[in-house]
Automatic annotation (TrEMBL):
GO terms for cellular component: replication fork. One of its GO terms (biological process) is DNA replication. This is DNA helicase Pif1-like 2B domain-containing protein. It comes from Daucus carota subsp. sativus. It comes from the Eukaryota. SUPFAM superfamilies: P-loop containing nucleoside triphosphate hydrolases. CDD domains: SF1_C_RecD (cd18809). Residues 73-118 form the DNA helicase Pif1-like 2B domain.
Length: 237
């Protein structure tokens, strides 16, 4: 899939149009991370690693034993949908996606794609690829973020760059994006109503869609499930 969608990566890894018109979609975040690392390893240059600063929000818990019960290594291991991981690995020239609204007037909204031009210790310089400010250079700082997960007995605060590498992205995150070349990578079937339709409708070119289905049943090679909740049609006139 990577060879098909990101062909000629060696020569065009810094081409803005090349990166803007390509994306690999997959259902789960763990698959997204695997694909992104695979493509990043092909990009020339050294990795720049950014680690977050994780802590418990003051006032969200009253236990004096929190430092013993929840060491930093535990916080660092937590992953949440819509939030960056503790460790972000990037390279200059890699495309990224914003995970938070930073400045709508400057085109820095949740879902905006950019390409990294410089990596500084506490700042990332990037070129905007999508939206109404295409071509503008901007700077992304670290910010404090709290997950929407209510299952934890405390409120986690993570200070990190609100970005994720986006050679690949989840199907849900791709809503609102349109590109010429889309690879739909399915190591597992889609799990939500309409996800398959969302994925295949992201492509704008009649020949720009590629689909890879992994681990199909022997009698259904090349087939995958299309999840539809029929209940949504019950009350239609």
């Amino acid at each position: 899939m990577v060879n098909e969608i990101y062909a000629e990566m060696d020569q065009k890894h810094g081409d803005v149009e090349y990166l803007r018109n390509r994306a690999i979609l997959t259902p789960l975040n763990e698959h997204v991370e695997n694909v992104n690392i695979n493509v990043l390893q092909r990009l020339p240059g050294e990795f720049k690693v950014y680690n977050s600063c994780d802590s418990i929000c003051k006032g969200s818990t009253f236990s004096e034993a929190d430092d013993v019960l929840y060491p930093p290594e535990f916080f660092n291991s937590l992953k949440f949908s819509g939030m960056p991981n503790h460790e972000i690995r990037v390279k200059i020239g890699a495309p990224i996606m914003l995970l938070r609204n930073l400045n709508a007037k400057k085109g820095l909204c949740n879902g905006t794609r950019l390409i990294i031009t410089q990596c500084y210790p506490f700042l990332i310089e990037a070129l905007i690829l999508t939206g109404n400010r295409i071509g503008d250079t901007t700077y992304i700082p670290r910010i404090n973020m709290c997950p929407a997960d209510n299952t934890l007995p405390f409120n986690l605060k993570r200070k990190q760059f609100p970005i994720a590498v986006c050679y690949a992205m989840t199907v849900n995150k791709s809503q609102g994006q349109t590109v010429q070349n889309v690879g739909l990578y399915l190591p597992s079937p889609v799990f939500g109503h309409g996800q398959f339709y969302v994925a295949v409708s992201r492509v704008t070119s009649p020949t720009g869609l590629r689909i890879v289905v992994v681990d199909s049943a022997k009698d259904q090679t090349g087939l995958t499930k299309n999840v539809v909740y029929h209940e949504v049609f019950e009350n239609l006139p």
